[in-house]
Amino acid sequence: MTRLFFLMLSKNKLLNHLAKKFGLQFGAKQVIAGTTFEEARKIIESLNEQGFLVTIDHLGEFVTTREEALQATVTCLDILDKINKYHLKSQLSIKLTQLGLSISPQFCYENVRKIVMAAQRSSNFVCIDMESSDYCQNTITLLESLRNEFPNAVGTVIQAYLFRAKSDIQHLKGARLRLVKGAYKEAKTIAFQTKEEIDVQYFERIKEHLREGEFTAIATHDHRIIEKVKIFCFKERIPRHKFEFQLLYGFRESLQRELVKQGYHVRIYVPYGNDWFAYFMRRLAERPQNVSFALKGFLGK
């Protein structure tokens, strides 16, 4: 029920509007690196100094106009320029709904192509975040078109709880993928529902992609899965440069530091911006422990 409650809140446009108006609240500042790039840059530089890689996400959802999508595109291009300017060890994560997918797939493709082209020019990489299942096929289709032109500059996310995850990974053979369990509420007709089922599917997808020899980003805070991956890679003699662990900014920081200490590549997903509400609600929905962030923030601790 707690998960459903926070997922429901994440889709509330009124609350999202109010959150923009009043700024970071309810503990959000602990897991969101500010509302401006300059605020985020200080955090990214600190993370880089500690041995972490980063992927930057300029938060934004509920985009309904071409003007908003075009502005989001300009912002993404500016982020790539600033990554170069400040020599940040960072990639860029984007959401297609922020770049106009709900307005027109072709319009969205044109916006994303500009971003990926800029990333390729600077030898950087763009990861297209996977949103709810409503957008899954459009995301895969758009990625395929981009990979034909920019094979090494763009990839996407596969959500292991979807029944289609296995076939999507096979279909995208050769692509650089971020593998996650899944953060949205999906119907039982298209997705596994229990934690036990999802954990099994997640680890199976990780093993399959690693065995193919493709670079794999393993995005989870689940220390049990992480330990299984470490053991699997050791037994299969998979070199550490073929995978990395990805964790969210502000969560399980001791685990993040321990992985770096052990010599693993660790990339921190760093979100910033004033459109933070939906992202924050999904993080609270993922794990009951995350609610403590909200309570501490609300109480000013």
Automatic annotation (TrEMBL):
Entry-linked SUPFAM superfamilies: FAD-linked oxidoreductase
Catalysed reactions, semicolon-separated: L-proline + a quinone = (S)-1-pyrroline-5-carboxylate + a quinol + H(+)
UniProt key word Flavoprotein: yes
Pfam families in the cross-refs: Pro_dh
Binding site residues for FAD: 130, 159, 181-183, 195, 220-221
UniProt keyword annotation of Oxidoreductase present: yes
Chain ranges of the Proline dehydrogenase domain: 41-293
Classification via InterPro entries: FAD-linked_oxidoreductase-like (IPR029041), PRODH_bac_arc (IPR008219), Proline_DH_dom (IPR002872), Proline_oxidase (IPR015659)
Signal peptide: none
Binding note for cofactor: Binds 1 FAD per subunit.
Organism: Alkalihalobacillus alcalophilus ATCC 27647 = CGMCC 1.3604
One annotated GO biological process: L-proline catabolic process to L-glutamate
Enzyme class, UniProt record, top EC level: oxidoreductase
Protein name, per record: proline dehydrogenase
Pathway: Amino-acid degradation; L-proline degradation into L-glutamate; L-glutamate from L-proline: step 1/2
